[in-house]
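Quick one, tokens below. Sequence please?
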């Protein structure tokens, strides 16, 4: 049992930063973007490499849905139908249903140190907007906890006395909807246009000064749909190149050797597994299959590479081995780090292996940060568990072929 998982109560200083500048585009929102996106704020390389390709100015905000049920106060604040009427609409709400001219969305993770530092800043912005008669009824705030459950999101709100609603996103569904950008905090400011929300600005990484975000909110209120739609046309016609944020510094041969060793360990050191072959699937990508064919039970492996959840984290790379019954048989880190970008030890890998092996991916299983996470690597641990759960879809695609 891991009783030392990092929690929001255990804040630590960040020692590795770099300075980032992002260009502002668009005439109407020039002030907002120039301040929010060009402001010198402390972020690390991961935030500088964040993928904001789905969040360019003028683009329609990707569809998102909050699955959690809301309190009457939260529904009232967001301008959503009351519970009596809202019950016919199902649990939760679509972000586009919020009644406001401007919506400010804060993606966070409770274990992200930069998110912890930005929480008071966002709360100050919320309080300042709430006291202005010309803004309080036109601007709404809410947060989304990428990879966090309901208890963690509620704990974060209590710990930092957050005044606006914050909702869990335990399966990263909304985080992926906006492009799985690879960094939190992620502050998105969007302008309502009919049934759409048009992105005015998006910023990944820590913002230390509330004035920066306040100016961006004012700029969003002053922006027009026409100007934002013109920016969308420019963004959609531009050549979009995704930065290589999660490249694994290993050759294909090295990866294949790691997969083979993991598969042999999964079979109790079975040397009859002489090699592996790759099979490509439309949705799941490359899946390794143990050779020779006929190994009982059949073994498969997926090499997982996912972007980080926080702005001071590196990409996450590991191997998951599973059988044709849907049972996780082994886990092998390729490149995993914890707080301070310290590489996982053999003990860390063995800890995760013990917790993962035997899980049935056909059945839902819940990640418990106080039990299942490697010490000071909670965000990485939840990504690993989430990836293991997604093997259910991989297995279905394998069986369908």
């Amino acid at each position: 049992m891991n009783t030392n998982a990092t929690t929001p109560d255990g804040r630590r200083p960040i020692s590795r930063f770099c300075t980032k500048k992002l260009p502002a585009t668009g005439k109407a929102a020039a002030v907002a973007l120039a301040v929010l996106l060009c402001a010198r704020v402390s972020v690390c390389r991961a935030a500088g490499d964040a993928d904001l390709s789905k969040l360019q100015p003028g683009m329609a905000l990707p569809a998102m849905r909050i699955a959690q049920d809301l309190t009457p106060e939260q529904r009232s604040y967001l301008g959503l139908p009351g519970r009596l009427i809202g019950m016919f609409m199902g649990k939760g709400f679509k972000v586009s249903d919020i009644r406001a001219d401007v919506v400010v969305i804060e993606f966070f993770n409770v274990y992200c140190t930069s998110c912890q530092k930005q929480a008071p800043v966002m709360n100050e912005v919320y309080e300042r907007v709430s006291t202005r008669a010309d803004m309080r009824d036109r601007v709404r705030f809410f947060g989304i906890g990428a990879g966090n459950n309901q208890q963690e999101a509620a704990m974060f709100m209590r710990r930092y006395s957050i005044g606006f609603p914050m909702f869990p996103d335990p399966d990263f569904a909304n985080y992926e909807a906006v492009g799985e950008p690879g960094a939190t905090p992620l502050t998105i400011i969007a302008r309502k246009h009919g049934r759409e929300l048009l992105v005015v600005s998006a910023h990944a990484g820590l913002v230390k000064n509330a004035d920066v975000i306040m100016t961006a909110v004012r700029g969003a209120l002053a922006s027009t749909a026409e100007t934002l739609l013109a920016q969308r046309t420019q963004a959609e016609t531009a050549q979009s190149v995704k930065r290589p944020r999660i490249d694994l510094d290993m050759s294909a041969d090295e990866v294949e050797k790691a997969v083979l060793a993991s598969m042999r360990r999964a079979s109790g050191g079975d040397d009859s597994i002489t090699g592996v072959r790759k099979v490509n699937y439309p949705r799941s990508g490359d899946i390794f299959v143990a050779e020779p064919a006929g190994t009982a039970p059949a073994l498969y492996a997926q090499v997982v590479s996912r972007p980080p959840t926080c702005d001071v984290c590196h990409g996450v790379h590991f191997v998951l081995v599973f059988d044709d019954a849907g049972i996780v048989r082994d886990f092998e880190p390729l490149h995993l780090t914890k707080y301070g970008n310290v590489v996982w030890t053999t003990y860390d890998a063995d800890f995760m292996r013990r917790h993962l092996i035997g899980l049935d991916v056909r059945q839902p299983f819940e990640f418990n940060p106080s039990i299942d996470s490697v010490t000071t690597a909670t965000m990485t641990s939840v990504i690993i568990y989430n990836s293991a759960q997604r093997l259910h879809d991989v297995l279905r695609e394998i069986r369908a072929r």
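The chain has 14 helices and 16 strands. The chain has two domains: 18-237, 252-400.
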